[in-house]
Amino acid sequence: MFTGLITDVGQVTAVERRGDTRFTIATGFDLDTVAIGASIACNGVCLTVVEKGHDGGQGGGGQGWFKVDVSAETHSKTTTGTWQAGTPVNLERSLRLGDELGGHLVYGHVDGVIDIVDVQPDGDSQRWWFDAPPHLARFIAAKGSVALDGVSLTVNSVEGTRFGINIIPHTQEKTTFQHLKAGGVINLEVDMLARYVARLAETK
Questions:
Q1: Which segments of the chain are extended strands (E)?
Q2: Do 9 and 89 contact (CB within 8 A), yes or no?
Q3: What's the pLDDT score for residue 59?
Q4: Can you give the pTM of this predicted structure?
Q5: pLDDT at residue 188 above 50?
Q6: Listed residue (149, 131, 146) closest to 195, CA to CA
Q7: H or E element: which one contains 192?
Q8: Residue 187: inside a domain, yes or no?
C-alpha cells in the first residue's frame, strides 16, 4: 500500500526481455533499507524488488539500482511496455504502519492507461486534462482522488469521460510530469473507495 507521494524519480537503465521483462532502475533510495521482495511503486505500478546493488555497471554512475520483473498482464494494463533505457520513473516505497498518510490510499494496482488531452498554464500551476474510458470514468468525481503515474492528485472537474487536475510547480519539478505532454498517455488508478461504493450500489 502507498500514499501517492513520490519520494524519488529513478531511471530505467536496462531492459531484459524474456518470458517476463526485467527492468533495472537506478534510484537514490538507501538500498540498505530495501529488502529483496519489498514492494516499490514504479509509475504507480506495485513491483517486487528481485535484485539490488550499488555497482556502477548496473545502475549507472555508481548509483544504487534494483531490478523488477514485469509480466505480460502488467504490460497490458500499464505503460511499462513503453519503458526503455533512459525512461524516468516515479518511485515510492510501500507504506509502513505509523507513517504519515499525506496523500490518499494507493494500492499500486493500475486500472488502465489513459490519454493526456491538454495542458494549459493556470497561474503558476498547470491545468491538465485527461480522457478515461467509460468503465473507468464512472469512478472519477470532482474533488475525489486519483493516482496518475503513482502521483496522488485531486480531481478539479469532470466533463463526461474527461477530467481536469491542477499540477503545482513542486509536483511538476519533483515527478515525471516534467517529461509528459499532451498527446501522451499515463497510468491511472482510481480511488478504491469509489470502486467499493459503485460495487455496493450495483448489488442493491
A1: 8-17, 21-27, 39-42, 45-53, 64-70, 88-93, 112-122, 125-131, 145-148, 151-159, 162-167, 185-190
A2: yes
A3: 45
A4: 0.89
A5: yes
A6: 146
A7: helix 192-203
A8: yes
Q: Give the number of other Cβ atoms within 10 Å of residue 81's Cβ.
A: 14
DSSP string, 130-188: EE--HHHHTT--TT-EEEETTEEEEEEEEETTEEEEEE-HHHHHHSGGGG--TT-EEEE
Residues 188 and 159 in one domain: yes
115 plus 49 within the same structural domain: no
Q: Are 44 and 103 in contact (CB under 8 A)?
A: no
Distance CA 162, CA 116 (A): 10
- Residue 167 is part of which domain span? 110-201
Neighbours of 72 (CB within 10 A): 10
Partner residues linked to 64 by β-bridges: 27
Query: 61-84 pLDDT, tens per residue?
Result: 557 999 999 999 999 999 999 999
pLDDT tens figures, 130-148? 999 999 999 999 999 999 9
In a domain, 96, yes or no: no
